[in-house]
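$ fold --in a.seq
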Amino acid sequence: MLSTMRSLAGLLIAAALLLAGGGLQTTLLALRAQSEGFPTWMVGSLFSCYSLGFMAGCLNLPATIRAVGHIRVFAALAATTAAAALLYMLLIHPLAWMLLRAVNGFCLAGLSMVIESWLNDRADNRSRGRLLSIYRIVDLSAVTAGQLMLVIGNPAHHTLFAVISILVSFAVVPVALTRASAPAPVAEIKLDFARLYAVSPLAVATTFGCGLANGAYWALAPVFVRTHGLSPHNVAWFMGAAVVAGAFAQYPIGWFSDRFDRRAVLIGVTMAASLASLMLAHAGAGPTSWLFVAAAAFGCTTMPMYGLAIAHANDSAARGEFVRVSSGLLLAYAVGAVIGPMIAGVSMTRFGPSALFIHTGIIQAALAMFGLYRITQRRSRPAAEQSAFVGVPETSPEVFRLDPRAEELASPTP
């Protein structure tokens, strides 16, 4: 395992740089767009455009990677992403920013595919689970670090955009200089939403609902905090609190879901998330510390939902369907992330900043009610027959090939 980690250190560093830059950029753009006078609904639409680009990248880039190779695609997409970070400063216009966000989503999907396919190619059945855990730690740590980088510059200036460009540019170095041979071709995504819904209606609804709620949160929570008169530094700590709390909560919640009816755990989490949303909707009127506590409660309850939905779907999937089912759920999440920020942005424009968390609370409550309905429609699966919970990131479909469940649930060899 140690030799494997040494050979993959450069890829993990590249992933950390990309994820830190991406985490910083999402929050920074929301703050800068607000200061430039963009309407709130348009700030939400920036994240929607990112999700549209992400879906397009997931569906179209596998063929490009097969045609020209991993390193060339990585270098081209990283160069485009770094340039886009600087173009935001040269083209301060809502339509230009929406186009650039779509380009960001397209590129980040491809960059994640390249890194994750390389990690998967170097993993074996003994190291796969540990490698995914390390990758998840890198993911969460880098996103948190990206949020906290807001404290080193003023969103109204060019500094932070330059930092993003530098981070992405440096990510190319370890990939371009690698001595490792190219991994196997990236798999095409074959979508069959009818089959996906037949496997698990609750998993489809949950991942779509996560996109609706969490997409709105990432797009507009910085606007919510700033509207309550807090500084960009407080925005950084607010966003970071949700990520850190969510990271720590995933595994205890996953542990419970592996030992009890996963649907009951999912219902409990969505109900708690709805309450956390209501806390946030009213927290702006209280002390700043209460706002951070509410953000942590929101992260604890919302971040595990996606992993719970993936695990629940694969409890009912046929052998050999793990990657296809999980990839379909990722795109269901992305579809929700296209729609959710737009709805939340319009609601905030009309009803005020607290409408963001009324929006997320309603979605989470609806998911809880749908879960209660689904329990009456299908028998409970014994815990011994459930697949294991794994906290997977929403990065690209390639991450599911790295997941140890892809091997465990593979079709048996005849």
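$ fold --in b.seq
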Amino acid sequence: MRFTRLLFCFAALAFAVQAADAAKKSALDKPTLEAYIRHVELLPDDLKVNVGDPKPSLFADFLEVPVQVETPTGVYAIRYFVSKDGQRIVKGSMFDVSKNPFQSELDKIKTDLQPSFGEPGAPVVMVVFTDFECPNCRDEAKVLRENLQKTYPKDVRVYFKDFPLERMHPWATKAAIAGRCVFRQSPAAFWEYHDWIFEHQPEITFENVKDKVVEWAGTKNLDTLQLGRCIDSKATEKDIERSIAEGRSLQVSGTPTMFINGRPLTGPIPWPTLDNVIKREIAYQKASGDAGEKCCEVKIPSLVK
């Protein structure tokens, strides 16, 4: 009789443990993580939260789970790490001291065939995500164009990336498509377009952006017929989509956002602050050499064996 009761107690205990395990929440369950994030971030119910699939991270015991929040002003990325047992959550960034602190960002940035200016092989690479209709982007573009080549003619290489915030700026995507059409026809003319459209930003509307661009192109000896067809067919729209996707993978949520050798800087940055960051990065690269532009080295196979 006593043995039977003992077996019953063990069975009840095992059932209780199983029930507790079943009831235990796991952050690897997407609805559970979304509910938890909504509470932590105080996110309203009407905002859409997209929880991505877990992927390996720098910490062996944690998985990185990308999260995007869709708001009226754009898509905001938040980086979370979830322990493999689903019980612990870390928000933020992780670093490997054996690598550049911004190696994760550097790995995601693609500069091939992108509009650029500055010295090839420069120790400092600046990648700028911008929006042609954004007033802050206009102001920052002026800072960059007036100061960088004059102050750092051999030390900085700048790459342009489109990140139109279409929900806030209705003609930004059209302008981005047009800019890439100009770039396809004449890479050198792109920077003239860049400076012109920012300068004339107040005059441009959703309705007149194409006409304004084609009119400008006619003064630069560009093929206006070809340009108009490119804009109408949205031939460069995929280029814009790739740029936006890259920005989101880098957690870009507003413009302008700059990456200086992978270091993210958001918002309009005054020149004295930017100048200081560049100086520090140049000094750092002299010692580390773990960033900057890796180019311009051509190895010709030897014919002598």
